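Holo prediction — adenosine monophosphate.
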Amino acid sequence: MLIIGPPGSGKGTQAERISERLGLAAISTGDIFRANVKGETRLGIEAKKYMDAGDFVPDSVTNKMVRDRLSEADVQDGFLLDGYPRTTAQVVYLDHIIAGKDDKLDVVLQLTADDEELVARLLGRAQETGRSDDNEAVIRHRLDLYHGQTEAVVATYAERGILVRVDGIGGIGEVTDGVMSILEDLLKVPVVNGR
Ligand code: AMP
């Protein structure tokens, strides 16, 4: 399963909650990059300059990182990818990885939200977390990339008939419950209540 949404749509929070309920490994490319930046690894040093500018880390770097992560043992029974793919080239690459596993994508969840709402949310988050890519110019650039590149990714999955769109504005629990009831119908998985 994939979760796609503009910056500030709550995809990281929802990915964690949904993956826990479905018993899937959650993989966030943004989190892996941030951990590498913190650890000052070669990957982190390379990624940081793009992240700070709100740009995408180059596909070649990101694709290899995802390929390595998806070869680990904990994802062999399924995974939820958060924040990947974001470009058409990444879609092609992911198709290739998944075909190599003789597997398929079941569902792509898109969280939607209005741009101005997202900017307000992210400026609030900047004050709490001090994330270096949460200032207004960088936020607007990340939103432009989302509209300019990632929406084409979403359109590809819509054409394949596996896209589910959910409004990301609302209470955290409300959004999770809405997503879970859709997934229950779609994937025929039982929803665990009260978590
Ligand atoms: P996120 O936490 O998902 O908002 O990601 C934070 C930053 O990490 C993004 O603004 C990009 O610089 C980088 N990043 C995360 N995922 C990708 C991806 N799939 N492709 C390129 N860059 C990415």
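READOUT: The pocket of adenosine monophosphate is lined by residues 7, 29-30, 33, 50-51, 54-57, 62, 83-84, 86, 90, 133, 142 (CB under 6 Å).
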